[in-house]
Amino acid sequence: MYAFEFARPRTIAEAVKALKRDEALALGGGQTLIPTLKNRLASPSVLVSLTGIAEMKGVCRTDDGMVAVGGGTPHAVVAREARKLYPALAALAGGIGDPAVRSRGTIGGSLANNDPAACYPAAVLASGATIVTNRRKIPADKFFRGMFSTALAEGEIIIEVRFPVPRKASYQKFRQPASRFALTGVFVARFDDGVRVAVTGASEGGVYRWKEAEKALTAAFRPSAVEGLKVSPKGMIGDLHGTPEYRANLVRVLTARAVAAA
Q: What's the whole-model pTM score?
Protein backbone atom coordinates (compact mmCIF):
# COMPACT_ATOMS: atom_id res chain seq x y z
CA MET A 1 0.00 0.00 0.00
CA TYR A 2 0.91 3.64 -0.39
CA ALA A 3 0.83 5.87 2.69
CA PHE A 4 -2.50 7.51 3.49
CA GLU A 5 -4.37 9.16 6.34
CA PHE A 6 -7.34 7.47 8.00
CA ALA A 7 -10.53 9.25 9.09
CA ARG A 8 -13.41 7.64 11.00
CA PRO A 9 -16.29 10.11 11.16
CA ARG A 10 -19.22 9.54 13.50
CA THR A 11 -21.88 11.37 11.50
CA ILE A 12 -22.87 11.70 7.85
CA ALA A 13 -22.02 15.41 7.94
CA GLU A 14 -18.51 14.65 9.18
CA ALA A 15 -18.06 12.03 6.45
CA VAL A 16 -19.19 14.42 3.72
CA LYS A 17 -16.76 17.05 4.99
CA ALA A 18 -13.88 14.55 5.09
CA LEU A 19 -14.59 13.39 1.54
CA LYS A 20 -14.11 16.95 0.26
CA ARG A 21 -10.39 16.62 0.84
CA ASP A 22 -8.27 16.07 -2.24
CA GLU A 23 -8.00 12.42 -3.33
CA ALA A 24 -10.18 11.19 -0.48
CA LEU A 25 -11.96 7.83 -0.84
CA ALA A 26 -14.89 6.40 1.11
CA LEU A 27 -14.31 3.05 2.80
CA GLY A 28 -17.23 0.76 3.53
CA GLY A 29 -16.47 -2.84 4.46
CA GLY A 30 -13.28 -2.74 2.40
CA GLN A 31 -13.86 -6.06 0.63
CA THR A 32 -12.87 -4.55 -2.72
CA LEU A 33 -10.97 -1.39 -1.80
CA ILE A 34 -8.47 -2.97 0.61
CA PRO A 35 -7.22 -5.55 -1.95
CA THR A 36 -7.06 -2.71 -4.48
CA LEU A 37 -4.85 -0.71 -2.13
CA LYS A 38 -2.67 -3.73 -1.36
CA ASN A 39 -2.00 -4.13 -5.05
CA ARG A 40 -1.22 -0.40 -5.33
CA LEU A 41 -3.97 0.13 -7.87
CA ALA A 42 -5.23 3.17 -5.95
CA SER A 43 -3.41 5.82 -3.94
CA PRO A 44 -5.86 7.96 -1.94
CA SER A 45 -4.54 10.69 0.33
CA VAL A 46 -7.11 9.78 2.98
CA LEU A 47 -9.52 6.89 3.58
CA VAL A 48 -12.82 7.94 5.10
CA SER A 49 -14.30 4.97 6.94
CA LEU A 50 -18.10 4.87 7.05
CA THR A 51 -18.27 2.02 9.56
CA GLY A 52 -18.60 4.26 12.61
CA ILE A 53 -21.75 6.08 11.47
CA ALA A 54 -24.63 4.60 13.48
CA GLU A 55 -27.35 6.33 11.44
CA MET A 56 -26.24 4.37 8.36
CA LYS A 57 -26.82 0.96 9.92
CA GLY A 58 -29.80 -1.32 10.47
CA VAL A 59 -32.91 -2.68 8.78
CA CYS A 60 -36.46 -1.47 9.42
CA ARG A 61 -39.90 -1.10 7.88
CA THR A 62 -40.85 2.43 6.90
CA ASP A 63 -44.25 4.07 7.42
CA ASP A 64 -45.10 3.51 3.75
CA GLY A 65 -44.39 -0.23 3.97
CA MET A 66 -40.95 -0.31 2.41
CA VAL A 67 -37.91 -2.03 3.90
CA ALA A 68 -35.10 0.44 4.56
CA VAL A 69 -31.52 -0.82 4.82
CA GLY A 70 -28.78 1.52 6.00
CA GLY A 71 -25.91 1.89 3.55
CA GLY A 72 -23.40 0.84 6.20
CA THR A 73 -25.24 -2.34 7.15
CA PRO A 74 -23.15 -5.54 6.83
CA HIS A 75 -24.49 -8.43 4.78
CA ALA A 76 -24.80 -10.63 7.87
CA VAL A 77 -27.07 -8.08 9.55
CA VAL A 78 -29.28 -7.83 6.46
CA ALA A 79 -29.52 -11.63 6.38
CA ARG A 80 -30.66 -11.65 10.00
CA GLU A 81 -32.82 -8.53 10.33
CA ALA A 82 -34.58 -8.67 6.93
CA ARG A 83 -35.64 -12.30 7.33
CA LYS A 84 -39.24 -11.47 8.27
CA LEU A 85 -39.46 -8.16 6.42
CA TYR A 86 -38.14 -9.25 3.01
CA PRO A 87 -37.18 -12.97 3.02
CA ALA A 88 -35.75 -13.04 -0.52
CA LEU A 89 -33.43 -10.14 0.24
CA ALA A 90 -32.31 -11.78 3.48
CA ALA A 91 -31.61 -15.05 1.67
CA LEU A 92 -29.54 -13.21 -0.95
CA ALA A 93 -27.47 -11.45 1.74
CA GLY A 94 -26.91 -14.74 3.56
CA GLY A 95 -25.42 -16.29 0.43
CA ILE A 96 -22.80 -13.61 -0.24
CA GLY A 97 -19.20 -14.78 0.13
CA ASP A 98 -18.31 -16.45 3.41
CA PRO A 99 -18.88 -15.50 7.09
CA ALA A 100 -15.86 -13.18 7.10
CA VAL A 101 -17.07 -11.30 4.02
CA ARG A 102 -20.64 -11.11 5.33
CA SER A 103 -19.48 -9.65 8.64
CA ARG A 104 -17.50 -6.83 6.98
CA GLY A 105 -18.99 -6.12 3.56
CA THR A 106 -21.83 -3.59 3.38
CA ILE A 107 -24.75 -3.09 1.03
CA GLY A 108 -23.70 0.49 0.31
CA GLY A 109 -20.17 -0.55 -0.56
CA SER A 110 -21.41 -3.30 -2.85
CA LEU A 111 -23.75 -0.99 -4.74
CA ALA A 112 -21.22 1.82 -5.03
CA ASN A 113 -18.65 -0.61 -6.46
CA ASN A 114 -21.20 -2.27 -8.77
CA ASP A 115 -19.17 -5.36 -9.53
CA PRO A 116 -20.73 -7.10 -12.56
CA ALA A 117 -21.05 -10.33 -10.55
CA ALA A 118 -22.31 -8.84 -7.26
CA CYS A 119 -25.62 -10.02 -5.83
CA TYR A 120 -27.16 -6.86 -4.35
CA PRO A 121 -27.54 -5.00 -7.67
CA ALA A 122 -29.95 -7.71 -8.83
CA ALA A 123 -32.11 -7.31 -5.72
CA VAL A 124 -32.12 -3.53 -6.00
CA LEU A 125 -32.99 -3.50 -9.70
CA ALA A 126 -35.62 -6.25 -9.52
CA SER A 127 -37.27 -4.66 -6.49
CA GLY A 128 -37.36 -1.21 -8.07
CA ALA A 129 -35.57 0.10 -4.98
CA THR A 130 -34.49 3.68 -4.32
CA ILE A 131 -30.90 4.55 -3.40
CA VAL A 132 -30.87 7.44 -0.93
CA THR A 133 -27.65 9.46 -0.80
CA ASN A 134 -26.56 12.53 1.13
CA ARG A 135 -27.73 14.60 -1.86
CA ARG A 136 -30.73 12.93 -3.52
CA LYS A 137 -32.87 9.86 -4.15
CA ILE A 138 -31.92 7.72 -7.16
CA PRO A 139 -34.32 5.13 -8.66
CA ALA A 140 -32.69 1.76 -9.30
CA ASP A 141 -33.38 1.99 -13.04
CA LYS A 142 -31.20 5.11 -13.22
CA PHE A 143 -28.49 4.08 -10.75
CA PHE A 144 -26.54 1.36 -12.58
CA ARG A 145 -24.57 2.56 -15.58
CA GLY A 146 -22.51 -0.41 -16.64
CA MET A 147 -19.64 -2.43 -15.24
CA PHE A 148 -18.25 -0.77 -12.08
CA SER A 149 -20.15 2.41 -12.97
CA THR A 150 -23.06 4.11 -11.18
CA ALA A 151 -24.86 7.45 -11.03
CA LEU A 152 -22.97 8.42 -7.86
CA ALA A 153 -21.04 11.66 -8.06
CA GLU A 154 -17.70 12.32 -6.38
CA GLY A 155 -18.14 12.55 -2.62
CA GLU A 156 -21.69 11.15 -2.73
CA ILE A 157 -22.51 8.55 -0.06
CA ILE A 158 -25.21 5.86 -0.07
CA ILE A 159 -27.09 6.54 3.17
CA GLU A 160 -29.93 4.08 2.74
CA VAL A 161 -31.61 1.73 0.28
CA ARG A 162 -35.42 1.54 0.30
CA PHE A 163 -37.01 -1.63 -1.03
CA PRO A 164 -40.66 -1.99 -2.04
CA VAL A 165 -41.68 -5.46 -0.86
CA PRO A 166 -43.09 -7.67 -3.65
CA ARG A 167 -45.86 -10.24 -3.22
CA LYS A 168 -43.42 -12.98 -4.17
CA ALA A 169 -39.68 -12.99 -4.82
CA SER A 170 -36.66 -15.24 -5.10
CA TYR A 171 -32.98 -14.98 -5.96
CA GLN A 172 -31.19 -17.88 -7.60
CA LYS A 173 -27.51 -17.87 -8.44
CA PHE A 174 -24.98 -20.25 -9.89
CA ARG A 175 -21.94 -19.68 -7.68
CA GLN A 176 -18.35 -19.38 -8.77
CA PRO A 177 -16.92 -21.94 -6.31
CA ALA A 178 -13.89 -19.98 -5.14
CA SER A 179 -15.21 -16.43 -4.81
CA ARG A 180 -18.90 -17.33 -4.38
CA PHE A 181 -19.75 -14.45 -6.66
CA ALA A 182 -22.57 -15.09 -9.10
CA LEU A 183 -21.37 -16.78 -12.26
CA THR A 184 -24.93 -15.82 -13.13
CA GLY A 185 -27.69 -14.75 -10.75
CA VAL A 186 -31.36 -13.88 -11.29
CA PHE A 187 -33.72 -12.04 -8.93
CA VAL A 188 -37.44 -12.28 -9.72
CA ALA A 189 -39.94 -10.01 -7.95
CA ARG A 190 -43.70 -10.16 -8.49
CA PHE A 191 -45.69 -7.04 -7.68
CA ASP A 192 -49.40 -6.32 -8.07
CA ASP A 193 -48.75 -4.40 -11.29
CA GLY A 194 -46.26 -6.81 -12.85
CA VAL A 195 -43.01 -8.76 -12.59
CA ARG A 196 -39.43 -7.46 -12.58
CA VAL A 197 -36.47 -9.69 -13.45
CA ALA A 198 -32.86 -8.61 -12.88
CA VAL A 199 -29.78 -10.52 -14.03
CA THR A 200 -26.28 -10.23 -12.58
CA GLY A 201 -22.99 -11.97 -13.33
CA ALA A 202 -23.78 -12.57 -16.99
CA SER A 203 -23.49 -9.37 -18.99
CA GLU A 204 -20.41 -7.35 -19.84
CA GLY A 205 -22.57 -4.30 -19.13
CA GLY A 206 -23.30 -5.39 -15.57
CA VAL A 207 -26.71 -5.93 -13.99
CA TYR A 208 -29.72 -5.56 -16.30
CA ARG A 209 -33.45 -6.23 -16.52
CA TRP A 210 -34.67 -9.06 -18.73
CA LYS A 211 -37.71 -7.35 -20.21
CA GLU A 212 -38.90 -10.30 -22.33
CA ALA A 213 -39.14 -12.49 -19.24
CA GLU A 214 -40.92 -9.73 -17.32
CA LYS A 215 -43.60 -9.53 -19.99
CA ALA A 216 -44.05 -13.30 -20.15
CA LEU A 217 -44.16 -13.72 -16.36
CA THR A 218 -46.57 -10.84 -15.89
CA ALA A 219 -48.95 -12.66 -18.21
CA ALA A 220 -48.39 -16.05 -16.53
CA PHE A 221 -46.27 -16.38 -13.40
CA ARG A 222 -44.99 -19.92 -13.82
CA PRO A 223 -41.63 -21.46 -14.80
CA SER A 224 -42.88 -22.64 -18.16
CA ALA A 225 -43.50 -19.03 -19.22
CA VAL A 226 -39.78 -18.53 -19.90
CA GLU A 227 -39.00 -21.93 -21.41
CA GLY A 228 -39.48 -20.76 -24.99
CA LEU A 229 -37.57 -17.48 -24.56
CA LYS A 230 -34.15 -17.04 -26.10
CA VAL A 231 -31.28 -15.17 -24.45
CA SER A 232 -28.64 -13.91 -26.86
CA PRO A 233 -25.02 -14.63 -25.91
CA LYS A 234 -23.99 -11.35 -27.52
CA GLY A 235 -22.46 -9.09 -24.90
CA MET A 236 -22.31 -11.84 -22.30
CA ILE A 237 -19.18 -12.43 -20.22
CA GLY A 238 -16.86 -15.15 -21.45
CA ASP A 239 -14.03 -16.43 -19.26
CA LEU A 240 -12.47 -19.63 -17.92
CA HIS A 241 -15.58 -20.22 -15.79
CA GLY A 242 -18.10 -20.12 -18.60
CA THR A 243 -18.69 -19.10 -22.20
CA PRO A 244 -21.17 -16.41 -23.25
CA GLU A 245 -23.49 -19.16 -24.50
CA TYR A 246 -23.27 -20.94 -21.13
CA ARG A 247 -24.20 -17.80 -19.22
CA ALA A 248 -27.03 -17.01 -21.64
CA ASN A 249 -28.52 -20.43 -20.96
CA LEU A 250 -28.09 -19.96 -17.21
CA VAL A 251 -30.18 -16.77 -17.34
CA ARG A 252 -33.20 -18.69 -18.58
CA VAL A 253 -32.64 -21.69 -16.30
CA LEU A 254 -32.18 -19.60 -13.16
CA THR A 255 -35.17 -17.41 -13.98
CA ALA A 256 -37.37 -20.49 -14.14
CA ARG A 257 -35.90 -21.73 -10.83
CA ALA A 258 -36.53 -18.36 -9.19
CA VAL A 259 -40.15 -18.38 -10.30
CA ALA A 260 -40.62 -21.91 -8.99
CA ALA A 261 -39.01 -20.98 -5.66
CA ALA A 262 -41.10 -17.82 -5.35
A: 0.94
